[in-house]
Amino acid sequence: MQALSTRKIPPAAPVQSQEAADAKEALVLAGISLVNSGLTLEQAALRTGAPRETIRRRRSGILTRHEMLSHGPQRLTDDEETALTDFILQMEASGFPLRQSDVEDSAMALMASRWNRNDPLPSLGEKWFSRFIERQPKLGFRTKETLSRQRTKGLSKPNAEHFYEILGSLVRTHNLSAKNIFSMDEAGVQHGVCSKKFKYAGSSKSRKELVTAKKDGSQELTTVIEAIAASGSALPATFVFKGKMFDMTLTLDSAQGFVFTSSQTGWTNSITTQRWFEKVFLPYSRDIAGEGEHRLLIMVRAEQSKFSSTSLH
Predict the structure, then answer these.
(1) Could you say which of 44, 53, 126, 197 would form a disulfide bridge with 34 (CB–CB 3.0 to 4.6 Å)?
(2) What is the model's pLDDT at position 80?
(3) How far is it, in rounded angstroms, from Cα 267 to Cα 250?
(4) Distance separating alpha carbons of residues 225 and 259, to the nearest angstrom
């Protein structure tokens, strides 16, 4: 007969309820908040009852086991992903649906805000964006074609009413007056002499009787960015000339009252638009609206791609 082993099997670890896990997580977050406010790890652990090492690890960006195993590895905490989801939905409601690169930039910014380790920030990974969308039931994938199709149907009475509902809500929420509401638009201006063939039809001509004209010369494009407050006060016009500039800061011509810069094409891009927002809109609109006052910027025909995630933040 074989002798039976008398070794005792250790009891299974008790399963922690969701309520207990949430309570423990709340204590850890409270401890992190206390450390960020200036307390030591020991003081934060003593006040909250959360383990000192847990507070240290979580504050250093090390995620919980649940967060690492849920739907693949995460780079953000659950609270950070919730905040990012709310930001994405808010930007979409405001007419600025974020691209994948914008979402990833925002995620990296959230990580950097709490990263205090000597090693560099880890990359999000190739599949992070798709897994992030899968983890968030409020979000879904959108394509450029879908957005373009929606924009072609954008000019309608329901959409106009929706726009003014959002505008009215912002005005009431932030107590905005006419001096706090700004509208911005840009227009391309061609100067020089046209050198390309073009066709036109006079009112007395049939569609088949088209006349071709030609003029020798050359044309260049200059983009003008303008912004005006609902009260009638205008910001300095910004001219974007075609050319190369090593210094991309905008230059103010105080005698003429306008700002000028350049781009390789003469069109605005994310760099020139961000410079305009930082160097023209923010300071000059503050002078009009008043120090510390909320300001609302309405962009007419402005493309979302011309505003970087930094500007949107």
Answers:
(1) 44
(2) 85
(3) 15
(4) 9
Do 137 and 236 fall within a single domain?
no
In a domain, 57, yes or no: yes
CA distance 28 to 44: 9
What's CA 3's distance to the chain center, in Å? 70
Task: Give the closest residue to 96 by CA, choosing from 240, 267, 299.
Answer: 299
**Distance between CA atoms of residues 26 and 18, nearest Å:** 12
Backbone angles phi, psi at 192, to 5 degrees: 115, -165
What is the Cα 7 distance to its own chain's centre? Answer: 61
Whether 136 and 245 map to the same domain: the answer is: no
Residue 25, phi then psi, degrees to nearest 5: -65, -40
Q: Is the same domain home to 32 and 130?
A: yes
pTM over 0.70: no
User: What is the per-residue burial (b if ≥16 Cβ within 10 Å, else e) of 57-91?
Assistant: ebbebebbeebeeeeeebbbbeebbeebbebbeeb
Euclidean distance between the first and the last CA atom of the chain, given in angstroms as a whole number: 75
Q: What 3-state class would DSSP assign to 153?
A: coil
Burial class (CB in 10 A: 0-12, 13-18, 19+), 272: buried
Average confidence (pLDDT) per 10 residues, the chain, 313 residues: 48 56 75 82 88 79 55 69 86 74 85 76 80 82 59 71 87 90 81 47 38 48 85 87 60 65 72 82 88 83 52 51
Q: Return the pLDDT at 182.
A: 92
Is 51 a domain residue? yes
> Alpha-carbon distance 26 to 162, whole Å?
38
Q: Are strands 198-200 and 296-299 parallel, antiparallel or unpaired?
A: unpaired
H-type helices in 37-122, by residue range? 41-48, 52-59, 65-69, 78-93, 100-114
Query: Does any domain span residue 261?
Result: yes
Counting the structural domains of the chain, the total is: 2
